[in-house]
Amino acid sequence: MKKTLALLGAILVVTSCTGATESPGDSAQSGDVTLLAYDSFTPPEGIFSAFEDETGLRVNVVTGGDSGSVISKAILTAGNPEGDVLWGVDNTTFSRAEDAELFTDVAPVDEGDVCINYDKEWYASRTLEPPTSLDALITPTYKGQLVVQDPVNSSPGLAFLMATIAKYGDGWQNWWKALRANDVLVVSDWTSAYTVEFSGSSGKGRYPLVVSYGSSPPAEVLYAATPIDEPPTGVIESTCFRQTEYVGTLRGADNPDGAKKLMEFLLGRQFQESLPLSMFVFPVNPDAELPQLFQKFAVRVTDPLQIPADEIADKRDRWIDEWRAIVL
Amino acid sequence: MIDSPRPGAATRSFPSAVPVAVPISFLGLFFAWPVLTMFVDHLSWSTVADVVRDRSLRGIAWFTFWQAVASTVVTLGVGVPLTWATVRWTFPGVSLLRTISTVPFLMPAVVVAAGVLAIVPERGVGAILWAHLSFNVAVVVRVVGARWALVGATLEEAGASLGASPWRVFRLVTWPLLRDAVRNAASLVFVFCFSSFAVIAVLGGVTRRTLETEVFTQAVRLGDIPTATALALVQTAVVVAALWLGRQRREPVEIGAATETPRERHTRDRISAQWLPPVVAAACAAITVAPLVVVAVRSVRYAGNWTLVGWRALFDGTLARVGVDVLEVLAHSLVFAAVAVVIAVPLAMLTVRRESTSLVERLSLAPLLVSSVTLGLGLIVTFDSSPYDWRGATWLVPVVHAVVALPLAIYVLGPAVRAVGNDVLDAAADLGAGALRRWWSIQLPLVRPAVLRAAGISVAVSIGEFGATSFLARSGSMTIPIAIGQLLGRPGPLLQQAGFALVTLTALAIVVTTRSL
Questions:
Q1: Within 13 A of B155's CA, how many CA atoms are on the CB side?
Q2: Three-state SS for A47?
Q3: Inter-chain Cβ pairs, chain A and chain B, closer than 8 A
């Protein structure tokens, strides 16, 4: 009992101390600007200090859930937002933000391609060429080799569905029927697909082809378990769909002036140059220089598959329903 | 005559001066208000009608139900023998076995699911059942264990000395005393499996969907809040109906011998097969923790070689680049857990009544019956303006943990409190002990093991809670499940290894801290 009481006492002391220091919610002074983002928004530490010194503003980064959660929350709180600037809408979800009139000002902030990645070793050891097109994926040679994500649940999964629609137009449903007959594996999320089922990364799974990003190969080098010079994976460039992320000032922001300055900073060269190695996306600012690792191994195709945002807005839900009916 | 107690005054569990208004207001403010706000703002009866008529949703509801029933059966099948072996008997390593089998409950469900997937390569119902079992055995051990620890051995010995076989003793003496707690545990496990999210998302593939995953899909992926709230309402209705149908008339049970201290009862010489408890305990614990063991092995093994790169990455600053500071994350989670315990356990003690399960006690179970997506979104839309603009407040995180932990703490405490014999308290009252005195000197010492278990389960909920918390805005207060999700959710084997190392580290930390409770 004594031990328990002592522990309880220690706990109370700890909590009362930390209670005093951590209350970001209370600190909405005019000198603060709050940036809302998804959990995987991880800019380099200290990146905002130059901005804070220059403007006298304090940047408060607040995360809460994945991209979908952040957007849903922003829509529910439209007009009385949880922060000033929102990072996390992309071209496949942009219509949801538009419908709710989330932003007073919005701009593209980074881009990247969703592409099929392949396991180099798997194909080399079988003296087989990796596929080079979407067409090839429905041939017997590549039967049972591809793992994709559910477009309802996964943003790369949705982008890949868009890629096939951009490529085949009205014929996309037939392609997916053929893919299903060719034993595609559908999993719910990127993590299950890339880190469990894919043979070319940490999970050493059974599938040598996976829907991931054009920037996944440099990540394999940067975060290799043992240092390597070349990524173990490659990108099938003809399958790439362009994803563009946006940053915007939220309608009803407490600090619209601060938000404007912060947006300028996020689009400025210093921040843009930090994007590749921290979040594995490409800058949109043409002055930003790419790090070596990205120049060597990351893929940003010149002619990606694309669908205009308003067409996505119109048909996204219908496409998803049709996809579910075919594949599930 | 003022001091002389009225007949029956001693039957209250705690001094009547302490109002039940405290837990009621707490749940009213942090649970009922946000959830009702969501329902009032977004629910329309025509949407509910659409949802009920939708054939595919009916299929989803049916799958949700039967997988929850099946999961409950397998969990009890492993959990009850494990509780028997580790609570009734003492042998070397018994408390370690009991502790490690409760660890999966503390882990983010994603991790348990990943472990199961590493053992059973096929997604599907089998994998879901194993993950649910692994995750929920802790509930059985905690809830049933709290009661079993109070069943007096003298009763069983009396039965045995009168010549009853062990099975007969169990059936006629032990089981009637345990029934309540087993039923409580079964309902809890059922509710957890019914509303399980991460396990189904990872192991169900894309074809196995439950009401909870569908609520999330509608609200977060498709942005259809009206359909999501309608589904959440249906989900609550189905689970309440299932619990109501599954209930039985409660028979008041008194355990006269409950005043023994636990130590005296843990003897092994009353069983002829002395090897049986250790073997049962080891086998059940193995089934339960296997998925985590697989993850632990993964943390030191990569591509067929033994390696410590993941563990090194946790502490050498590599993870700063992906925004994870391991020591800070662990510290946050511990502080949140501590606050949640300090809130949930006293509130549970105020709620639980001796004479029977009170209405308050039943109502306070509500947080288990409502989808955490609804609660999470409700908190954000409710506490959005002065003087309740608490959306970004860090303290809201452990408060929400306490909301979710409270029903479990009550489940653990209730049967134990009701097991304390009236005669003891009445005797004390006759001798002139006041309500507070009776509570402090008699009641509290008797239910102390259950209080500690309630604290343990609250810690567990706090550390593992992912649903509602994931919607709350956080500024530099990452919790363990979120950090693990971040590490496992990015390309790069090093980050994966570090993620598995963090899971293992957390498991070890939990074993060490909960053993001291």
A1: 21
A2: coil
A3: 188
In the block, which residue shows the tokens 């009445």?
A: B426
For residue B198, give the chain A residue with the closest CA: A188
DSSP B142: H
Partner residue facing A65 (CB), from B342, B381, B471: B471
Residue A164 predicted with pLDDT over 70: yes
Cα–Cα distance for residue pair B462/B408, rounded to 1 Å: 12
* Collapsed DSSP state (helix, strand, coil) of residue B458: helix
- CB environment A96-134: b (16+ within 10 A), e (fewer): bbeebebbeebeebbbbbbbbbbbbebbeeeeeebbeeb
- Please indicate whether, in this complex, the C-beta atoms of A203 and B485 are within 8 angstroms of each other: no
Query: Tokens in use for A305?
Result: 């598959």
Q: Looking at residue B246, what is its pLDDT?
A: 65
Provide the b/e sequence for B64-95 (b: ≥16 CB within 10 Å): bbebbeebbebbbebbbbbbbbbbbbeeeebe
pLDDT tens per residue, range B193-237: 998 888 887 788 777 889 988 888 888 888 888 999 999 998 998
Residue in A79, A96, A80 with CA at minimum distance from that of residue A88: A96
This complex has an ipTM of: 0.77
Task: Report residue A19's pLDDT band, with 50, 70 and 90 as the boundaries.
Answer: very low
Cβ of A65 within 8 Å of Cβ of B335? The answer is no
Q: How many residues does chain A have?
A: 328
Compute the distance between CA of residue B189 and CA of residue B71 in angstroms, rounded to an integer.
8
Cβ pair B345, B409 in contact under 8 A: yes
Examine the pLDDT at A204 and tell me if it is beyond 50: yes
Please determine, for residue B7, whether its predicted confidence score (pLDDT) is greater than 50: no
* Digit-coded pLDDT (tens) for B122-140: 788 999 999 999 999 988 9
Whether residues A224 and B220 touch (CB distance < 8 A) is answered with: no
Residue from the list A11, A60, A224 with its beta carbon closest to the beta carbon of B494: A224
Q: What is the pLDDT of residue B273?
A: 64
Q: Which of the residue ranges A201-210, B23-32, B262-271, B276-285 would you say has the lowest mean pLDDT?
A: B262-271
* Closest-CA residue of chain B to A276: B321
Q: Please check whether residue A190 touches B, CB under 8 A.
A: yes
> What backbone torsions phi and psi does residue B6 show, to the nearest 5 degrees?
-70, 150
Residue of A3, A32, A191, A216 best to disrupt the B interface, most CBs of B under 10 A: A191
Q: Once rounded to an integer, what is the mean pLDDT over residues B181-186?
A: 87
CA-to-CA separations, A136 to A95, A116, A146, B339, B452, in angstroms, rounded: 32, 12, 11, 57, 61
Picking from B31, B7, B13, B29, the residue whose alpha carbon sits closest to that of residue B357 is: B13
d(CA A224, CA A217): 10
pLDDT winner (highest mean) among B10-19, B60-69, B199-208, B238-247: B60-69
Question: How many angstroms separate the most distant Cα atoms in chain A?
Answer: 73
Contacts of B385 in chain A (CB under 8 A): 80
Cβ count near B433 (within 10 Å): 19
Optimal mutation site among A118, A188, A221, A324, interface B, most CBs of chain B within 10 A:
A188
Which chain B residues have a beta carbon less than 8 Å from that of A26?
393
User: Could you tell me if B231 and B56 are in contact, meaning their C-beta atoms sit under 8 angstroms apart?
Assistant: no
Q: Which of B389, B448, B471 sits opposite A64 (nearest CB)?
A: B471
Contacting A residues, span 298-327, partner chain B, CB-CB under 8 Å: 317, 320, 327
Task: Please check the confidence at residue A104 and state whether its pLDDT lies above 90.
Answer: yes
Confidence (pTM): 0.81
Question: Are the Cβ atoms of B303 and A225 closer than 8 angstroms?
Answer: yes
Report d(CA B27, CA B360) in Å as an integer: 11
